[in-house]
Specification:
Layout: E1 14-18, H1 22-33, E2 37-41, H2 45-64, H3 70-78, E3 80-83, E4 94-97, H4 103-116, E5 122-125, H5 132-136, E6 145-150, E7 159-164, H6 170-182, E8 186-191, H7 198-214, H8 220-231, H9 237-244, H10 246-260, H11 269-276, E9 290-291, E10 299-300, E11 318-322, H12 326-337, E12 341-345, H13 349-368, H14 374-382, E13 384-387, E14 398-401, H15 407-420, E15 426-429, H16 436-440, E16 449-454, E17 463-468, H17 474-486, E18 490-495, H18 502-518, H19 524-535, H20 541-548, H21 550-564, H22 573-580
Helix pairs in contact: 7-9, 7-10, 7-18, 10-11, 12-13, 18-20, 18-21
Length: about 600
């Protein structure tokens, strides 16, 4: 609460917090810091004493770090009483429950609070996955019951999900949101569905990452690196599962599946196996990764782990790039800056010349920003030869195609390259959604064909997905992996299936977000805010959809659905309707938001 806002101007002058674990203690501290009287309640006298001690230690730590003054700490602690008597909650205008995720335990506590507290008291559950409606049903005041889902650590994380059931009164929800704002938080409104907004979107994505690892499609390191470098996420999904706790993830997913019956929400078997074995992630010292000690964040190598031995790759001195669009120009720039001679072929000499001019413009911007010298710019440009004839690729060591995302077009090009390119040349496709094997079988040398999926803009994005088919030669894979390192990209290895790593995990998440809007579960702005503040994502799902293009997104989602045949991967009807209406995102001025007015 700001200094200019009197306590009387915001709701709930007295707040009770039932359960003073990490989350409950953090909420109690926040409420007391806002000037409210706070009643902390634990189950036993010993637990109450231990909770008070933890809060005193946490606030002392805040003083040591300059986040609180000594006087502020004393005032905060004077407003906080801790007891083991649940009846003390009768004095509160708002009660926040933060006990373990057990439905019967929560219902029992709410039934008791219903008897203890005056009828006007608002009762809030901090559940992350359980039904708020079923908890409310244990009381005679469901219109005064809601969810207040803070994120850990509560004093730091900005987001609070205000969860309304079908019976929650509008005033109770408005007061709860005002309460969250008075604590300096950003509340978002959500309906009562397992996982609410953030966990509902996050855990389905984490589950698919676990299943991807379990199928041995890609390594844990490559899955995590792909999502960090390809999407700008703060953590990879498997590292995040270890941080959250694999048992916690399994519990949330089971609650989601019980409500949705969507197989994508059914916990991946590996999560159950890890939980049963006590491999819970960081807190146990081992999960998807191994850690120096329980609770440590330091990843250590497992005993007996050995480095993968690769065959020697082929020598690459010259590179050909097919295409004249943004991706082709970016790839040509990447290789030319790394010292390779590049022949860029377009459908005409005029288009090829325009591509070189676009590369020069990009390099000029780097020079103006001090990121590149004029001499290096000139040397880079000198390495790029524009051409309107595929025959000019006859002597290059590697050809990358970045033409239209159309299988017939790509197969025709690969058949042409097969006739032109010298024996032993590596032929690569930059496709993001089409089968690489279909490009390979258009040639008489499928062993030389591989996928190199760059991300846009290629000069800036660090990730390259290296996609080997069942026929790709080992030395071709080794060649491309070494080449990525030479051009300062981070390669991740995966097999030839729809979406590869990034798109196979990203687009189902985006599709789930669209379904939320379609079901009037939350607003576009609240979903975007929730994922940015709750997960640290650089963009919300609807911001990202509008940037990528709704038509591009729909195409990729159709490809995923066609390959995996999962009902939950079927594109959301709302997305199809928007594309049909020509609302494609930023490029048309309107998508999930109206960009023409901005």
């Amino acid at each position: 609460m700001t200094e200019s806002t009197p306590l009387s101007a915001v709701p709930f002058a007295t707040v009770a917090v039932v359960g003073l674990g990490t989350m409950g203690a953090g909420i109690a501290e926040l409420a007391a810091r806002s000037g409210r009287q706070v009643i902390g309640i634990e189950a036993t006298p010993a637990e109450a004493h231990a909770a008070r001690t933890r809060i005193e230690e946490a606030t002392a730590h805040s003083v040591a770090r300059g986040r609180l003054t000594k006087a502020e700490r004393q005032e905060l602690l004077s407003r906080l009483q801790v007891t083991h008597e649940l009846t003390a909650a009768a004095e509160a205008e708002l009660v926040i429950e933060e006990v373990p995720e057990n439905l019967e335990l929560k219902r029992e506590i709410f039934a008791e609070l219903d008897k203890i507290c005056p009828p006007e008291t608002v009762l809030a559950t901090g559940t992350t996955a359980l039904s708020v409606t079923r908890i409310a049903a244990a009381t005679t005041r469901p219109e005064r019951v809601l969810g207040l889902h803070f994120f850990n650590p509560a004093p730091v994380m900005q987001l609070v999900e205000v969860v309304r059931t079908v019976l929650t009164g509008p005033q109770a929800a408005e007061d709860a949101a005002a309460f969250a704002r008075s604590l300096g938080k950003s509340p978002v409104a959500a309906g009562d569905r397992a996982g609410f907004i953030v966990n509902g979107l996050l855990f389905a994505y984490l589950n698919q990452a676990a299943a991807m690892f379990e199928s041995r499609y890609a390594s844990r390191e490559d899955i995590d690196a792909a999502m960090r470098f390809g999407c700008g996420l703060p953590m990879g999904p498997l590292a995040l599962l270890d941080l959250i706790g694999i048992d916690t993830a399994k519990t949330v997913l089971e609650a989601m599946y019980a409500q949705s019956h969507d197989r994508l929400h059914a916990p991946a078997p590996i999560l159950g196996q890890f939980a049963a074995a006590g491999l819970l992630g960081r807190k146990s010292g081992r999960g998807f990764y191994s850690y120096a000690a329980p609770g440590s964040s330091q990843v250590v190598a497992e005993e007996g782990a050995s480095a993968k031995v690769r065959v020697a790759g082929r020598e690459i001195r010259s590179v050909g790039v097919c295409g004249s669009g943004t991706m082709a120009n970016g790839i040509a720039e990447v290789f030319a800056k790394a010292g390779y001679t590049v022949t860029q072929v377009a459908r005409s000499q005029e288009k090829a010349d325009r591509s070189k001019a676009a590369i020069q413009k990009s390099l000029d911007r780097m020079v103006s920003k001090g990121r590149l010298s004029a001499e290096d710019r000139d040397a880079t440009l000198a390495r790029v030869t524009p051409s309107g004839a595929y025959e000019d690729l006859h002597s290059v060591d590697l050809v990358l195609e970045a033409v239209a995302e159309d299988l017939a077009v790509k197969r025709e090009l690969f058949a042409t390259l097969d006739k032109i390119c010298k024996p032993g040349a590596v032929l690569a496709t930059t496709t993001s959604s089409l089968p690489v094997i279909q490009c390979a079988t258009a040639t008489g040398r499928p062993q030389d064909v591989i996928g190199m999926h760059f991300f846009n803009p290629a000069p800036a994005m660090k990730l390259v997905e290296v996609v080997s088919t069942v026929l790709t030669a080992e030395d071709v894979t080794a060649t491309v992996l070494d080449l990525c390192a030479t051009v300062r990209k981070h390669p991740v290895e995966c097999g030839d299936r729809a979406g590869f790593i990034v798109n196979a995990l990203l687009f189902p998440y985006l599709n789930d977000a669209v379904r939320m809007i379609e079901e009037h579960y939350a607003s576009v702005d609240d979903v975007d805010t929730a994922m940015k503040l709750g997960c640290g994502y650089p963009m919300g799902p609807f911001e990202l959809l509008d940037v990528v293009g709704l038509d591009v997104s729909l195409t990729i989602e159709k490809v995923l659905h066609a390959e995996f045949r999962e009902p939950g991967l079927a594109p959301a009807p709302l997305l199809e309707h928007l594309v049909t209406a020509g609302c494609l995102g930023r490029k048309t001025g309107r998508g999930f938001r109206d960009h023409a007015r901005r």
